[in-house]
Amino acid sequence: MRRSSRIPPRPPSSPPPPPAAASKIPFRPRKTRKLTNERLDPPKPPPPPSPPVLAAPRFLKPLSSDGEIELALGHLRRSDPLLSALIGSLEAPTFASSARPFLALSRSILYQQLATKAAQTIYARFLELFGGGGEDGEDGVSPDSLLALSPQQLRQAGVSGRKAGYLHDLAENFRSGALSDESILEMEDEALLTALTRVKGIGVWSVHMFMMFSLHRPDVLPVGDLGVRKGVQAMHELKELPKPLEMEELCEKWKPYRSVGSWYMWRLMESKAAAAKSMPASAPAPVQGR
């Protein structure tokens, strides 16, 4: 018999048995430790103590009011040791009552760039145009009465043509209502400076002088005045005249009585000039800054 070459098929294999279930090993949950800022950064030192806060200045009265000079001098002695020594060596300032704002501004224009004696003569002639000299003439000075005078009439009193134009511009500002005696007395310093420098012939220095010596404002610092600048230079022994910004910084401690501090700078320079005059001619001149 012939053997068949066919290979009988294998019986199907049985599927492999399922793997045994893996046994679970229990783990204890780990505790997460939080890192706080105290671990990461060193503790911050406590902030330095704040400087004592000075009380805001009360509403300041004019320096001609009773007791204001004493308050000003007390503040300046406490705030500036250099100025305190100067205050102790000189008489206290006085600020007498002054004229109406319109009259004071008119007089300021007349006095510009003139020696004191020449200015006084022209001012007396100016008052005669209004009904007489002294108080009678001053009472007659008003915007309307000034505008009624021609430039020729003003020139006959010794007023230059340019100053006649300045006086008429001032009077026009008052007659139009842009300025008035009442509004000037009520304006804050910065607003007043802006309003008055719009008038022809009135600059920043003139406004500062008007605020100090006519309105008696307590906190005016005339940074452009040569005498005040020289006084600050001498008191601080500076090599050069301080510029406006440096004046502001050096005199900051005088607030809110910078008008009185400035007054002492003028007196300081006057005392130095008097001492220089009384010095014998053979004596050597003092070396500045020593």
Automatic annotation (TrEMBL):
InterPro entries linked to this entry:
Alkylbase_DNA_Glycosylase/TA (IPR051912), DNA_glycosylase (IPR011257), HhH-GPD_domain (IPR003265)
Recite the UniProt keywords alphabetically: DNA damage, DNA repair
Q: What is this protein called?
A: HhH-GPD domain-containing protein
The record's CDD domains line, in alphabetical order, gives: ENDO3c (cd00056)
Does the keyword section mention DNA repair? yes
Q: Where is the composition biased (Pro residues)?
A: 8-20, 43-54
Q: From the UniProt entry, list the residue stretches annotated as the region Disordered.
A: 1-56
> What does the record list as GO biological process?
DNA repair
What family does this chain come from, according to its entry? Belongs to the alkylbase DNA glycosidase AlkA family.
Give the Gene Ontology MF terms in alphabetical order: damaged DNA binding
- Every copy of the HhH-GPD domain together lies at 110-270
Superkingdom per UniProt: Eukaryota
RNA-binding: is it a keyword of this entry? Answer: no
